[in-house]
Amino acid sequence: MLKFQILRxxxxxxxxxxxxxxxxxxxxxxxxSFSGVPEPASxxxxxxxxxxxxxxxxxxxxxxxxxxxxxxxQPRGGTSVVAGLCHLIGAPMGTDIDPSNMEDRTxxxxxxxxxxxxxxxxxxxxxxRLGQFRGFKDPLVIEYLDDLLPHLENPxxxxxxxxxxxxxxxxxxxxxxxxxxxSAADSRRRKKIxxxxxxxxxxxxxxxxxxxxxLAEPQTAFSQLSEFLTGGTDAGLRSAVRxxxxxxxxxxxxxNFVEIAKLKNF
Length: 266
Fold this sequence. Notes:
35% of the residues lie in helices and 19% in strands. It is of the alpha/beta class. The chain has a 5-stranded mixed sheet with strand order 4-10-9-5-8. It starts with 13 loop residues before the first strand and ends with a helix.
């Protein structure tokens, strides 16, 4: 049975404002309609079998609606949007979320910790407070994923891949050297590909998500991701998600997934 706790109060069609701006400055500029009616996976409109898919499942999820979702990507790689979608689908993405990038600050500390194993154990214990379906996003998790996986209960991996040239361009806009950024982005992409093709994840549910195709087909991407994580999708959320996936959006000024989830009684 799907555990869409955030949608139980929406038995009738109702309107929910999307929150734009910081905590001190919120503008209700758009309205989203949520039906609250789960849409069976068999009736979800999605890409034809012979068309490129935003989400490609490599190992099916045998425990839908339960487990620890880990968004695996890289800096400027589109993981913030994907983590936001996971958060709305029903897997809260941490206990101390930074709304500007959907990162759990507790997991962010692992990279700089002198004792990585202890930091991982602390972060996982904190995450356990969220219940049986939860997750987190750290764009650098690929650097310590091997150490992390043994500590996670029923891990579910969502790999996000984005064009490395686009990543380098975003880094360059922020002041980084273009060629150095391009090299770093390609190196991290190779690590993900090596992990995906190496066979070590054969028993771990995981999928690959294209950032570019997610922007082009947001509703299809949402449906396919939701089906992978929970076994189904919500028709109202699917209809509304096209207003949440905005190219080059600033978070939380343009889209605030944390506040949207609160409005929906997440």
